[in-house]
Amino acid sequence: MQPIVFLIDELEAEHDGNTTLEVDGGLASLKEALGYGNVLMACPRCSEKSEYITVLAFLADKVTLLCERLVTKFLNMVVRNAESKRAAPFSVLVGSYETDSNLEWSAVLGILITLQLQALYSLVDKIKKTCAKAGPMQ
Questions:
Q1: For residue 138, is pLDDT > 50?
Q2: Of 33, 43, 125, 126, which is the most exposed, with the fewest CB atoms less than 10 Å away?
Q3: CA–CA separation, 88 vs 100, rounded Å?
Q4: Residue 54 β-bridge partners
């Protein structure tokens, strides 16, 4: 659970500070956070403890804020790139394949962001179901 607490602190510092969010770094942080959350939910002993569920709910909240910033940044970049006819801000490599147009870049990143949003929805759904099974907490 300690890595999750450190990750929450890191996400909170990124959100509260005036740091500039980069799409690639934001996606990496998002994937890492969701991975930790899913590992914790997969542990039957952990998912039965209210303190773990509380930490997971807090993580989901921070990840949701990150998603909001990430999607806003991505959409702004897509609009700016389309209006100015600039090259994509960075290349996306998949094996030996490299995106070479704004259309490819925005499609690949859009799909990656969509997948992470679906993973967040799935994690939140698991947390809700776990809480519903447990009933009111004492």
A1: no
A2: 125
A3: 8
A4: none
CA–CA gap between residue 49 and residue 129 (Å, rounded): 14
| Paired residues of 98 in beta bridges | 93
* Paired tokens of 46: 């952990």
- What is the phi/psi pair of residue 97, to 5°? -90, 135
Contacts with 34 (C-beta within 8 Å, 6 or more apart), sequence order: 63, 116, 119, 120, 123
In 79-134, beta strands by DSSP E:
93-94, 97-98
* Contact (Cβ atoms closer than 8 angstroms) between residue 8 and residue 27: no
- Tokens found for residue 35: 């991975």
The CA-to-CA distance between both ends of the chain, in Å, stands at 22
- Rounded CA-CA distance 94/115 in Å is 16
Contact call for residues 16 and 101 (beta carbons, < 8 A): no
Residue 134 vs residue 138, higher pLDDT: 134
Query: pLDDT tens digit string along 115-135?
Result: 999 999 999 999 999 888 876
38-44 — which CB contacts under 8 Å span 24+ positions? 38/119, 38/123, 38/126, 40/1, 40/4, 41/123, 41/126, 41/127, 41/130
